[in-house]
Amino acid sequence: MAADKKIANRRMFRGKGIVHFDYSSSSSPYPRAGDIQQYLDTAKLGITPTTPLDEYYLRLTAFSQMSFIEFQGSCVTGMWLRDAHSVNKAALLIVFDGSVVVEGIEVTAGQFALLKPGVVPVVVESKAKRNDVIVVSFGAHKLAGLPILTMDKQLIVTDMEDRSLEPLLAYLRSLCRMRPRGQSQTDVLEGLSQGLVRALLQAVLGTPPVTGSTYVRAMRLIESDFANPNLSGAVIAAKLGISVRSLQSAFEEHGEAVSVVLREARARAAIATRAANPSASARDIARLSGFAAESTMYRAIRELKSKPDVDLQLSADSELSW
């Protein structure tokens, strides 16, 4: 069974690193046909409305090892038939509106629910008349170094109290609706999404001690928190408990400057977001990428594109490629 699932997964992602689906139950109570049903079957996911009158909408963006699902609607029952192949898969539920019951535990608006890897099937029920939930499924390696793997509880529920997470949550919603074009943009988008998922997990569980050299620890902070417009060299140094000069010296040893690395991380994120969602406004893209102003974003992108060792493989269309 695990081998069959791996084959089906490879077939779905053959020739592309990402898939995207939109589905409305108004067209059919059950997503029976097309690629979305193939994806749900491969992922062993089932969705059943409580009554034929209970409508819902799904937006799904998936990489080969990570998926993002936006659910909006009324009462449904979702089933994740986990098996030996999904033993390394975990899931994060983010409830923006309404409430869901996960294995008998209610998760209400403004809460996260983190489900540990396992093989036991999971039942999720949306209870309110209007629910707004994002579900992120990812490999357990994203949990390395985080305390969940040693916790007895299978489900951890916490409140969304940190307002600095708002840009990350906005990005996740945007990601559910994106339609990436081109493998180069997909690769950047996947790397960006992996960093943001880990940042969310750290926020849900509490950030563990970060080990490694000053440069490595600083790079991890940049990768996970670049979407925070307040992040700067001084903030990074304060989080690491070192002086700004020590931080600068660590980057100089690698021939880099912390401000440049941070700016380039945001520029790459902006390019990937624009490529994936051309209809998004420059203002929204700047905000999601951590830029305080559109002009700063444009300048950073021009600087990144001018570097001879950077190959972004962007469209010749100036509107899309900036």
Short description:
This protein is an alpha+beta fold. The chain is built from 11 helices and 12 strands.
Tell me about this structure.
The chain has helices at 2-12, 34-42, 166-176, 183-205, 214-225, 233-240, 244-252, 258-276, 282-289, 294-306, 318-321; strands at residues 18-24, 45-49, 56-63, 66-73, 76-80, 89-97, 99-102, 105-108, 111-115, 122-126, 131-139, 155-159. Helix 4 (183-205) packs across helix 8, helix 6 crosses helix 7 (244-252) and helix 8 (258-276) crosses helix 10. Strand 7 (99-102) and strand 8 form a beta hairpin. Helix content is 39%, strand content 23%. The chain is globular. The strands form two sheets. The protein has a seven-stranded antiparallel β-sheet with strand order 1-3-4-11-6-9-12, with helices on one face. Strands 2-5-10-7-8 form a five-stranded antiparallel β-sheet. It is α+β, with helices and mostly antiparallel strands and 322 residues long. The longest helix is centred in the middle third of the chain and has 23 residues, at 183-205. The chain contains eleven helices and twelve strands. The protein has two domains: 2-175, Sandwich (Jelly Rolls); 209-321, Arc Repressor Mutant, subunit A. Mean pLDDT is 79; it is low at 1-8 and 311-321.
Keywords for this entry:
322 residues; alpha+beta; Jelly Rolls; Arc Repressor Mutant, subunit A; 39% helix; 23% strand; disordered N terminus
Topology:
Blueprint: H1 2-12, E1 18-24, H2 34-42, E2 45-49, E3 56-63, E4 66-73, E5 76-80, E6 89-97, E7 99-102, E8 105-108, E9 111-115, E10 122-126, E11 131-139, E12 155-159, H3 166-176, H4 183-205, H5 214-225, H6 233-240, H7 244-252, H8 258-276, H9 282-289, H10 294-306, H11 318-321
Antiparallel strand pairs: 1-3, 2-5, 3-4, 4-11, 5-10, 6-9, 6-11, 7-8, 7-10, 9-12
Helix pairs in contact: 1-2, 4-8, 6-7, 8-9, 8-10
